[in-house]
Design goal:
Order of helices and strands: EEHHEHEHEEHEH
Structural class: alpha/beta
Strand content: 15-25%
Helix content: 25-40%
Number of strands: 7
Strand order of the largest sheet: 2-1-7-6-3-4-5
Shape: globular
Radius of gyration: 15 Å
Largest sheet: 7 strands, mixed
Number of helices: 6
Length: about 200
């Protein structure tokens, strides 16, 4: 299933994102569903925040698609960037019983909600880090998988942010993002593709 409000999901595989393949030949998996993205997102974003703080996921289909594309192992290390109130990172944590999940966001309030949601679900393998994406406060090749749902298009330097995500991704790792609308109408989806 794909979300009709937020229909675009992209997967990047790190083993094909090195200097020798930058700009072409990448293994990219894309799922598009021509859904109706609205131009007035203010009320929707306020509702997403309100519902997310209560522990509910407003866009589970996009989170499910991200998780499916990551091909998680139960002992992996996962980074969820721009995690907001926790999804899809908390659902990833539930699938990694011997793994570790780090949720990042620039908003301390959103991370506090994510932490409360993790506690309510009994998840003990979740860490919270208040930070932006440029630069990420992690060593090179720190994570097996990375997700970023509905955050990538808000980063001021999208190519730089993607490069930073790739830097902390282990060789052979997987990075999956979801952004709004189809790629033809969505420059924040095509910019990362041009960057890699």
């Amino acid at each position: 299933p794909r979300s009709t409000l937020f229909p675009y999901t992209t997967l990047f595989r790190s083993d094909n994102m090195n200097a020798s393949t930058r700009g072409g030949g990448n293994d990219v998996e894309r799922g598009c569903n021509p859904g109706a993205a609205t131009s007035d997102m203010g009320p929707i974003l306020r509702r997403v925040d309100e519902v997310g703080r209560a522990g509910y996921d407003m866009a589970p289909a996009s989170g499910d698609e991200i998780i499916r594309s990551l091909r998680l192992s139960d002992d992996g290390e996962h980074l969820d960037v721009a995690a907001g109130t926790g999804e899809p990172g908390l659902s990833v944590a539930a699938r990694l019983p011997r793994g570790r999940v780090v949720l990042t966001d620039v908003s301390a309030g959103m991370l506090a909600s994510a932490g409360a949601n993790a506690t309510a679900r009994g998840l003990t393998n979740v860490e919270l880090r208040e930070c932006g994406v440029d630069p990420l406060p992690f060593e090179d090749a720190s994570f097996d998988t990375i997700s970023c749902r509905f955050g990538l298009m808000f980063f001021p330097d999208i190519p730089g942010a993607v490069a930073e995500l790739i830097r902390v991704l282990r060789p052979g790792g997987r990075l999956s993002t979801a952004v709004w609308a189809e790629s033809v109408d969505n420059p924040w989806a095509t910019i990362p593709m041009a960057a890699i």
